[in-house]
């Protein structure tokens, strides 16, 4: 069973909730190795998206929702997460296109497009201690699950689990991108806040999917 | 000028930094569109997509815009903004990887001199050049030459060309002629100095404060620099095309 507009809207609402809930944790992670604004910026961004969901036209698609998230994050976040997540959602929206429903392979392709968007915007590579270290394992797991015939909900569950492991695995890494890279070796032992928020957002996507498909 | 000159946008996490840069660059580029895009929409530390978009729009008079950014996410925001410009405008907007203060002033001066976008961008990029000679000396291309030739006792080797010329410009070495001198010096591989100051550093040259009648010693330690020294000396003697 594919994921439709209701899933997309629910994902956004859950994202706003989970970011608000983890706001302090994200701020703390970012304060350790960055400028401390990640939790607050992301919270402000998603808080700004939620009321706009009510204005979606009838017949809107998941792609429309993703585009709305992209534009709102780009213009409200104010830190690196704005252009990075903004580009990710924008590329995801383009990948989802005008389809009313996304199956497992469409979801895997959408995640890959999002990840590629972050890479092209931030120029980070795997192992740089950035959100890519959550996204790339997520995309790999999603692609593998989709190839094995998993449905959309199972694809997202696989992605979320891999993203969480990937975020955890950023702890021993030396940061090579972003503000944390100024700390060099001192960034070791801290989890990357962007990887952590990525894992939270993908978990929200999986939760919304399991709710909507009753899996 | 103004009309038709390249505009400069300063993107900073801090509105004070961006506005301060406009103020600083304005002193040497009175008629250029210099626009600050600092801080977030609600005045916090950060960068604003909307502010960058409207700053680019405001700075463009048709001749293009050079965008200078401070830290990482300012560049990300500026690059995202570029993605959203229409193709025609995007083609004449360049994000410059340059030191914000020196690069920004150099870009503004080049724009004031009526330079096209590519030259404004180059002026900003080469503005950090004042710091490079140290690195060049350490790992320069001529270690063999220094090893075999004059044993450079105490570094007093003055084998290079020297010319002393007099500044004839009524207003002294102000922004436009200084920019021309720096631009010319930047076209040569050899390092040339004016009164001991790196001729490729706009701020250093301008801060010499040279007025009409001043004596300029144009020199290089590099024996191969006579073309460079002659060219710069002749430019100064010509009065930079001013009467």
Automatic annotation (TrEMBL), chain A:
Residues covered by the DhaL domain: 6-207
EC code: 2.7.1.-
Source organism of the structure: Agromyces terreus
Listed NCBIfam families: dha_L_ycgS
Xref: SUPFAM superfamilies: DhaL-like (SSF101473)
Gene3D superfamilies per UniProt: 1.25.40.340
An annotated GO cellular component: cytosol
Keyword Transferase: yes
An individual GO BP term: glycerol catabolic process
An example Gene Ontology molecular-function term: glycerone kinase activity
Highest rank taxon of the organism: Bacteria
Record-given protein name: Dihydroxyacetone kinase-like protein
Stored Pfam families: Dak2
Swiss-Prot/TrEMBL keywords: Kinase, Transferase
UniProtKB/TrEMBL annotation, chain B:
Gene3D superfamilies hit by this protein: HPr-like, Phosphotransferase system, mannose-type IIA component
GO biological process terms held by the UniProt record: glycerol catabolic process; phosphoenolpyruvate-dependent sugar phosphotransferase system
Coiled-coil intervals: none
InterPro entries: DhaM (IPR039643), DhaM_N (IPR012844), HPr-like (IPR000032), HPr-like_sf (IPR035895), PTS_EIIA_man-typ (IPR004701), PTS_EIIA_man-typ_sf (IPR036662), PTS_HPr_His_P_site (IPR001020)
Cellular component terms (Gene Ontology): membrane
All residue ranges annotated as the HPr domain in the record: 160-243
Alphabetized UniProt keyword annotations: Transferase
Domain of life (superkingdom): Bacteria
Comp. bias (Low complexity): 138-150
Catalytic activity line of the entry: dihydroxyacetone + phosphoenolpyruvate = dihydroxyacetone phosphate + pyruvate
EC number(s) stated in the UniProt entry for this protein: 2.7.1.121
GO MF term list: phosphoenolpyruvate-glycerone phosphotransferase activity
Chain spans, region Disordered: 123-158
Enzyme class: transferase
Keyword Nucleus attached: no
Domain PTS EIIA type-4: 5-153
PANTHER family, per the entry: PEP-DEPENDENT DIHYDROXYACETONE KINASE, PHOSPHORYL DONOR SUBUNIT DHAM
Assembly information from the UniProt record: Homodimer. The dihydroxyacetone kinase complex is composed of a homodimer of DhaM, a homodimer of DhaK and the subunit DhaL.
Function of the molecule: Component of the dihydroxyacetone kinase complex, which is responsible for the phosphoenolpyruvate (PEP)-dependent phosphorylation of dihydroxyacetone. DhaM serves as the phosphoryl donor. Is phosphorylated by phosphoenolpyruvate in an EI- and HPr-dependent reaction, and a phosphorelay system on histidine residues finally leads to phosphoryl transfer to DhaL and dihydroxyacetone.
Name the record gives this protein: Phosphocarrier protein HPr
